[in-house]
Write the structure tokens for this entry.
Amino acid sequence: VQLVESGGGLVQAGGSLRLSCAVSGITMDEYAIGWFRQAPGKEREGVSCISATDGITYYADSVKGRFTISRDNAKSTAYLQMDSLKPEDTALYYCATYTSRLIYGQGTQVTVSS
């Protein structure tokens, strides 16, 4: 199983980024996908997740109303649309899925300048 994130970068506060997570090695529509982030000196935290087929989503309170998770099972790709970004959103962002264990990608850096 492999997850590869992309789409991170440097953006000013108030800007937007769209992260992608390409999934291989599993039939993606059988698994929920989650996004996590880890800022320097802080623990990794859950940001959002989406169920396998019925589109049920969850958002951390800190991103609710600003981030949108989605998935395209035909493309084996999940997305995280991030709008109204804040400096406190700066972190390394990971996508993950749980098969017999939680599997993370390598992460993509998001930096939001004030």
Notes: The two ends are 37 Å apart (CA to CA). The mean pLDDT is 97. Residues 66 and 83 are 5 Å apart (CA to CA).
